[in-house]
Amino acid sequence: MNAPGGASAGAPWVRRAVPAVAAGSVLLAAAGLRLFGADAQSLWYDEGTSAALVHRSLAEIARGAAGDIHPPLYYWLLALWARVFGDGVVALRSFSAVAGMLAVAGVMAVGRRLWGTAVGLAAGSAAASSPFLVWYGQEVRMYMLAAAWGAALVWQALGLRPKPMPQAAPSPSGTAAPAARRGWRVWAPWTACATAALYTHYLVGLGAVATSNTIIALGVWGSGRPAAAADRRFLGAWALANATAAALFAPWLRLAWPAIRDWPALGPPVPIGRTVRDALAAFTAGTPASASVGTAALTLAGIVAVAGVLYRGRDGSHRAGAIAAAWAGTPLVLLLAVSASRPAWNPKFLIGGALGFDLLVGAGVVGLAACAGRLGTAAARRWRTAGLGSGAAPVLAGIVGPACAGLAVVGAAAAIAWPRVAALGAMYGDPAHQRDDYRGIAAAVDAAAGPDDAVILNAPTQVEVFGYYDRGRHVLYPLPRQRPPDRAATLADVADIGGRHRDLYGVLWATAESDPEGLVEGWLNAHRHKVFDAWHGGVRLAMWAAARRPLTPQPVGRPVFGSDELVLVALAAGPPAVAAGEVVTIEAVWAAAAAPRADYTVFVHLLDAAGRRVAGRDMRPIGGSASTSRWPPIGVSGVAALAERLSAVPSLESADAAVAGAGHVDRIGLRVPPDAAPGAYTLQLGLYDPATGTRLAVSGMGSAPARAAGGDAIVAGRVDVKPAGAR
């Protein structure tokens, strides 16, 4: 396949204006897709880190970044940007949107230089609409800026070639300067961009520099000329430019090396085949939707990209396809090499390669159209032999050829656009593809928390993103304070916090890393009444309430749930009267008379006078942490002995010591809806198997009848609800 040549008919200004208008339209589309709904999603954890840094000095940013896993240039530039445009979500995300537009412009420029205007526009359109690039073009992180540096390095690499040999004819592609381009007026911009890329992101920046060097190497040794014929001064300047970039980066590398050296693996090793498949899926449909993209869509995208590799450039060679393939593939090769010693697989590190992939896609669409057009024209001309007049063949050739080309464009473009449109729609509107909702978490806390309440952030570094939305309205406690956590110190911290505040809200994220033993949540589950535990994306918001006194013992009669499995030995609930929007707390002591057959869920319902459910809380015992199937059975006699010990305890709030080794104290909280009508309400409690949804039947133990609310629940208390705000 060859790139079409020749200029379009028409006035010179038209020939110049039409491509310029088309390119401007592509850039406007890129801007629109990246700015559309820029504030629809909350900042997530990493973005919160970026947002917090914009208020620090450049020196403070550098000191903080030295202990982090990212270099400081992006943070410096973002801080300067925020001083002009503010620190709102749209303002912060627009910095990445601008970087994304520059990257799209770079793809268009490279495509035009290698293949011509049509490929440049097609490749730019692909990059503008890429869900992968749009996603990171809306994120307050450094990945899009690093990709833009990579595009600049690729553009510069196209012009960095040795002086042509005297006998060589000038290249028609425009990819090499007519004379040697060895001076620092050319190499200085390349060195500056290479250094900037390294100071923006370690892996993506290194991939950008490696890609540019690969393309330069293709220009030096890819022409078929022996390496010895290359201009030695060019090779020296090339080596010096790389050495200068390395020297400029070395002081920072020395400072940040401990953090880089100790950077943990990002997961288990990923097989090469899956890595390639996941990379293609990310390039095709973006990271949120990459897991659901089908094989057919990936195959079609791959075919179009391969067509781009095979499509000859303006110079009539396959060098253009090789350059685009190097742009797409070098970051992946580098990531695989790095992951050989320390797994670091994450598609976002391939963002530079996504630009090269979209360049291949643009070339593939135009190349397939050109090939189809030539085949159609040739077929129409052969129709002469089928009895058509000699005058009809040229007419048919003039119609069929363009028609075939148009159909090829439509087909190839549809193959690329189909998964992209679906992925963009999901990215903008599907809750499953949204970022972690810290904004919603902060709003929920603000709506419910009282002046004596506090927020525990586990992991502690969430303080930056949560603080961005909380704006100092609540007391925040980042826990655990050490990593790995100091068990005694962490438990003491939580106990101290619990003693100074009434209700505690927990924002929990990546606790397997920050608190692998679950010290913080374990203490709260054991000592406070868990009201709710809800996911907001990949982050949980939970509430633990202090006991609402008085806690009144309830005459439940020691009911048995299931086939003599679980016994409710004692129960207390309170207070007897609450205002709408307040919390009712329950202390339940469970024991296993026989071995439980499943991990049961405890449900508590608040029913109005008509028996309608107005509130509910479903959770496994002890704040969702207990597996009832693992509770050791103590038999009927053990249950009786436990009940006798509890009868000597003045309050179930202090029953833990009496229960130890035999029963399990389950502290439950239930919030009355703020709009609940005043009146008398009933608390209903029971158990069910979450695997089937089947409730466990309730019966009495011995001569003690169950205070039943039906065959599968008990009455756990009565509550008089007052108007909201009443005392």
In short:
This protein is of the alpha+beta class and about 725 residues long.
Description:
- By secondary structure, the protein is α+β, with helices and mostly antiparallel strands.
- It folds into 3 domains: 383 residues, no CATH class; 108 residues; 171 residues, Immunoglobulin-like, CATH 2.60.40.1930.
- The chain has 23 helices and 18 strands.
- The strands form 3 sheets. Strands 9, 11, 12, 14, 15, 17 and 18 form a 7-stranded mixed beta sheet that branches.
- Helix 5 packs antiparallel against helix 6, helix 12 packs across helix 13 and helix 19 packs across helix 21.
- The longest helix is centred in the middle third of the chain and has 38 residues.
- The chain is elongated, with a radius of gyration of 33 Å.
- About 4% of the residues have low confidence.
State the low-pLDDT regions, or none. 5-9, 167-182, 702-706
Structural class: alpha+beta
Strand content: 5-15%
Mean pLDDT: 87
What characteristic shape results from the CA principal axes? elongated
Number of domains: 3
Helical residue percent?
Answer: 40-55%
Largest sheet: 7 strands, mixed
- The radius of gyration over CA amounts to 33 Å
Quickly list its features.
727 residues, 3 domains, six-stranded antiparallel sheet, Immunoglobulin-like, single chain, alpha+beta, 23 helices
Question: Would you spell out the secondary-structure blueprint of this structure?
Answer:
Elements: H1 12-35, H2 45-53, H3 58-66, H4 73-85, H5 89-114, H6 117-129, H7 131-136, H8 143-158, H9 184-200, H10 202-221, H11 232-261, H12 272-285, H13 295-310, H14 319-339, H15 351-382, H16 392-429, H17 438-448, E1 454-458, H18 463-470, E2 475-478, H19 487-500, E3 504-508, H20 511-514, H21 519-527, E4 529-536, E5 539-545, E6 552-553, E7 560-561, E8 566-574, E9 577-579, E10 583-592, E11 601-607, E12 613-619, H22 635-647, H23 656-659, E13 664-671, E14 679-689, E15 694-695, E16 698-699, E17 708-710, E18 713-722
Parallel strand pairs: 1-2, 1-3, 9-18
Antiparallel strand pairs: 3-5, 4-5, 6-8, 7-8, 7-16, 8-10, 10-13, 11-12, 11-14, 14-15, 14-18, 17-18
Helix pairs in contact: 1-5, 1-6, 2-18, 5-6, 5-8, 5-15, 6-15, 8-9, 8-10, 8-15, 9-10, 9-11, 10-14, 12-13, 13-15, 13-16, 14-15, 15-16, 17-18, 19-21
